[in-house]
Inverse folding.
């Protein structure tokens, strides 16, 4: 029986990340939500991430100190410095301001970036180190180097599938713990779909929503190929695309413009939780999980909003949602058309309720409590 340790410690915590490109960027949202929960428990939190030209080097957001380090450059030596050494030096600089750090928690897709916290511990031997691998790396340089994870105090991954992969790669089992990525259930929750459709002047539309990054492995091209097929049986269907990575997603604009009556491509800032709640279905046809959180936030946010979901039957997703959402084989256009068509006509209410119940396990409060428990247990070790 696993009994949580009561958090009596007030900790000085450093969260290290590559991405924190702006307040609307996915990593920024999740790290800020997590930081705020840590602060609510009386802890002191700082975030160290990479510098971008348009962003401030230092700022305080709420109670969170944010320090951006390094020098934006395409030079590979400077990239190595920015990704690894700069984080270590920045941490030492921030410790002069805030005192010694008890917990150093690194977030990345590439295992090699755990070297940040390994190097940081050389100058702060008492600190406890946690490496969170939120996804599989999209970059070839991010693959491998798994055994370096044996030199941190704890490794967390979002699924058992990923944990088994690490063990097969030589990471010690006792170092690994499955801790899910979180969602904010105070932003994503069931709302009146008909009222929202009237608000956005979509009262007669059957809305199919895709939001998030539109990388090729996300299955964007597969979804686009379903558009003419689904229009045949659903003349009032409306596909809404809300891309996170517009410069890359712009390549799809010409083909989407071929369906002016049935497609909206939204590149302005909108209320995402409302769009998720008004959709008749959220479609996330992942080809692989590379570069995607093991617990995809878009998937869980839709479930928390009681919006039907169609995705693909990848092992990580099956582990998370079981049979509570519709699943097609990755890359299978005909199967995806069948699932979406079915959902628009007769989506079972019991699946919606089951998916909603599952999503509540990913609430930020529950996930933060698990991390605080890990911090506390590590700090109590001799």
């Amino acid at each position: 029986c696993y009994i949580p340790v009561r958090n009596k410690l007030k900790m000085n915590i450093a969260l290290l990340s590559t991405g924190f490109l702006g307040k609307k960027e996915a990593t920024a949202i999740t790290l800020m939500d997590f930081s705020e929960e840590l602060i609510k428990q009386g802890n002191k939190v700082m975030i160290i991430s990479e510098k971008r030209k348009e962003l401030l080097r230092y700022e305080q957001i709420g109670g969170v100190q944010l320090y951006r380090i390094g020098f934006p450059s395409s030079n590979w030596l400077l990239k190595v410095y920015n990704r690894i050494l700069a984080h270590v030096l920045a941490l030492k600089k921030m410790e002069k301001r805030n005192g010694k750090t008890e917990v150093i928690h690194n977030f990345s897709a590439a295992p090699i970036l755990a070297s940040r916290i390994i190097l940081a511990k050389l100058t702060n031997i008492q600190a406890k180190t946690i490496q969170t691998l939120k996804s599989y790396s999209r970059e070839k340089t991010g693959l491998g180097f798994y055994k370096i994870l044996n030199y941190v105090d704890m490794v967390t991954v979002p699924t058992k599938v990923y944990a088994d992969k690490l063990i097969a790669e030589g990471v010690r089992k006792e170092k690994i713990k499955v801790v899910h990525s979180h969602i904010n259930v105070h932003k994503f929750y069931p709302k009146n779909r008909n009222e929202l459709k009237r608000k956005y002047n979509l009262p007669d539309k059957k809305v199919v929503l895709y939001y998030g990054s539109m990388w090729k492995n996300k299955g964007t091209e597969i979804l686009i190929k379903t558009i003419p097929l689904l229009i045949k049986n659903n003349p009032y269907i409306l596909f809404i695309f809300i891309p996170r990575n517009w410069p890359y997603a712009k390549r799809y604009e010409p083909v989407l413009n071929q369906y002016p009556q049935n497609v909206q491509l939204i590149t302005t800032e909108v209320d995402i939780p409302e769009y998720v709640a008004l959709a008749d279905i959220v479609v996330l046809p992942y080809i692989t999980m590379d570069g995607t959180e093991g617990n995809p936030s878009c998937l869980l946010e839709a479930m928390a909003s009681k919006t039907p979901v169609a995705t693909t039957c990848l092992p990580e997703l099956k582990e998370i949602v079981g049979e509570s959402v519709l699943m097609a084989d990755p890359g299978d256009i005909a199967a995806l058309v069948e699932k979406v068509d079915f959902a628009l006509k007769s989506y079972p209410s019991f699946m919606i309720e089951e998916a909603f119940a599952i999503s509540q396990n990913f609430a930020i409060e529950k996930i933060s409590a698990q991390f605080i428990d890990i911090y506390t247990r590590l700090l109590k070790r001799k």
Summary: Residues 1-7 have pLDDT under 50 and may be disordered. The chain has 14 helices and 14 strands. The longest strand covers residues 44-50.
